[in-house]
Amino acid sequence: MLILGIETSCDETAAAVVDGGGVVLSSVIATSLELHRAHGGVVPEIASRAHIESISAVVSAAIDKAEVKLSDLDAVAVTYAPGLIGALLVGVSFAKSLAYGLGVPIIPVHHLRGHIAAGEISNPELKPPYLALVVSGGHTELVDVRSHTEFVVLGATVDDACGEAYDKAARAMGLSYPGGAEIEKRLISADKNYYKLPRPRTEEPMDFSFSGLKTAVLNIVNNSKQKGEHVSVPCLCAAFQFAVCDIFEERVRLALEKTKYDKLLLCGGVAANAGIRHRLRLVANDMGAEFYSPVGEYCGDNAAMIAAAALWQQADGAHLDLNGYASMGIEKT
Questions:
Q1: Does a structural domain hold residue 121?
Q2: What is the DSSP annotation of 168-234?
Q3: 245 occurs within a structural domain
Q4: Domain span at 304
Q5: How confident is the model at residue 314 (pLDDT cuts 50, 70, 90)?
Q6: pTM reported for the whole predicted model
Q7: Residue 70 CB: number of other CB atoms within 10 A?
């Protein structure tokens, strides 16, 4: 079985071919990151136009790299939720047209299930049940992965996603987009205790809140400017990441205690952050759990994870009425 995966939920136009055993035969990504950098974040209209311009070439490159033909495909998998609606519709429309022309099924895939599948691509020994922390620019969720078809959200952000908070905090400090990488580059050897930042709490103990943490960074920068004081950007970066790690550690410990699982997966774009990976590896080890995370190329948005997640579902029809959805819970698909 050969599945073509298509991913266009944000600013990456991606296509990949995965076989029935979950082996990635090709993975091609075209990013519009540079187009968004000047704006300090992803501009939905720009992202959608970039997808339109790139998708045909990206799919063709994925087919060529896999050394297969379009006629060899057994199904087309596509991200249909959640994400930027204009961006999603580019991928969904292309997938429907291609599947119709080839006479093969379309498999609609939830974006967060794709990120979880990325962990299993990189770690074939990882099988449910396990705890997954999905952290990206648009999502922060603690997920009880009971099986490949049953997912239960134990906690989620009530305001900003973690990656979004990184971007906004970085912008407040005068750093460029994307903020996560810029913050991580500057915190090495800095004093994480120089600035005191909050660890916001929520009504539900396993939910997350990052808005107050982001605002605290903004207030420090603005107050320092008003007083003519110097802001130590490295120390503020270190304090911010230290606070994020504390927030994650507290929730992950609660979730591991609740589920009694012995496996923890960190996935999503923010999973590329070495400091967060290190902290959660220590937490897992302390609680007698194995720690897993995708390799770097599968942390961010990619289509290999979409095709891999499609293997968990049944290719049960053409789905030519498939639509895109900007918001949808992982439990609802």
A1: no
A2: HHHHHTTPPSSHHHHHHHH-TT--TTSS-------SSTT-B--HHHHHHHHHHHHHHHHHTPPP-HH
A3: yes
A4: 2-115+298-332
A5: confident
A6: 0.95
A7: 14
